[in-house]
Amino acid sequence: NAPAPHRPIQALPDQLISQIAAGEVVERPSAVVKELLENALDAGSTQITVRLEEGGVKRIAITDNGRGIAPEQLPLALARHATSKIASLDDLENVNTLGFRGEALASIASVAAVTLTSRTADAPHAWEITGSHLATVTPSSGAHGTTIDVRDLYFNTPARRKFLKSEQTEFGHCADVVRRIALARPDVSFSLSHNGKTVDHWMVGEMAKRSAQILGDNFASARLSIDENAGPLRIHGYAGLPTASKARADGQFFYVNGRFVRDKVLMHAVRAAYEDVLHGDRFPSYVLALDLDPALVDVNVHPSKIEVRFRDSRAVHQFVFHAVQRALAQTSATSHGSVPS
Ligand code: ADP
Ligand code: MG
């Protein structure tokens, strides 16, 4: 191998920085779907439509009815490190939105063809911008809210495109993301279509109904309600009975301050609580939401924010373990079977 050519140190161009970041922020179509859904929720939407083509690689179009983006702000929405969600370190430590890094749209726009169309409540019509933050904003049409249309993901980064799996696999990951987000927000309606066919459609409703729709009737008829407080911690949701356990760990949903997470501390606490009632080769199903003061948890561990760090992870572990264990103990003390939810 020839040695790399020696070059002087140079600042990277903006576009290239975003393309490098895109490898972390949006490593596959489902990560784009996650970022766009989080933006729609942060905008206060109550109705969200997700349209995918060819596993999301050809097209991801998400329409919401949220507060929208003013025309003069549209370029900023696509600019790197531009956000309406935090303005100071103080805000970062008390973040109560799903996004805050201000890099998702810029990253996506650097590796796909993006059109952002938006109309705020007071605007007489919508406006749109296509391409990047350098493009011109033009009048458009559409209802109040925002549509972001992402086409030909990674068309300009073939190395990354090669890592994509089959259309069905990529679609499966996208659908998983929609479901895990929809599960936490029964107060929002979601619809998901793939290649023109509606796959999922959930109306606004109760948590009980949404979780039955997403986890199935088996879970709905074999789950225990949990709702406990201790100081700054609250846990609520459903723990599935052993009869709702699965051979695969695909019925496990844990949220921290509304954010789906896969956290070792939390998973261990739940697992330990099930120890006495579940065989080692079975996986419990659950939908649990832990809410706590945002200052007690750091969500800024990784761009995808799927990992979190608790200030006092021992206290969180104990709290979750005991809450789930208490719920499970109640049924074995009385009788097995379904419990009113
Ligand atoms: P972040 O979500 O971290 O702020 P993004 O790059 O995802 O960064 O979005 C940049 C900004 O664009 C957001 O801060 C928000 O103000 C605006 N924005 C993005 N999507 C939407 C949407 N669906 N509705 C309203 N505003 C949006
Ligand atoms: Mg965002």
UniProtKB/TrEMBL annotation:
<dbReference type="GO" id="GO:0140664">
    <property type="term" value="F:ATP-dependent DNA damage sensor activity"/>
</dbReference>
<comment type="similarity">
    <text>Belongs to the DNA mismatch repair MutL/HexB family.</text>
</comment>
<keyword id="KW-0540">Nuclease</keyword>
<protein>
    <recommendedName>
        <fullName>DNA mismatch repair protein MutL</fullName>
    </recommendedName>
</protein>
<keyword id="KW-0255">Endonuclease</keyword>
<keyword id="KW-0378">Hydrolase</keyword>
<comment type="function">
    <text>This protein is involved in the repair of mismatches in DNA. It is required for dam-dependent methyl-directed DNA mismatch repair. May act as a 'molecular matchmaker', a protein that promotes the formation of a stable complex between two or more DNA-binding proteins in an ATP-dependent manner without itself being part of a final effector complex.</text>
</comment>
<dbReference type="GO" id="GO:0032300">
    <property type="term" value="C:mismatch repair complex"/>
</dbReference>
<dbReference type="GO" id="GO:0004519">
    <property type="term" value="F:endonuclease activity"/>
</dbReference>
<dbReference type="GO" id="GO:0006298">
    <property type="term" value="P:mismatch repair"/>
</dbReference>
<dbReference type="GO" id="GO:0005524">
    <property type="term" value="F:ATP binding"/>
</dbReference>
<dbReference type="GO" id="GO:0030983">
    <property type="term" value="F:mismatched DNA binding"/>
</dbReference>
<keyword id="KW-0234">DNA repair</keyword>
<dbReference type="GO" id="GO:0016887">
    <property type="term" value="F:ATP hydrolysis activity"/>
</dbReference>
<keyword id="KW-0227">DNA damage</keyword>
<feature type="domain" description="DNA mismatch repair protein S5">
    <location>
        <begin position="211"/>
        <end position="329"/>
    </location>
</feature>
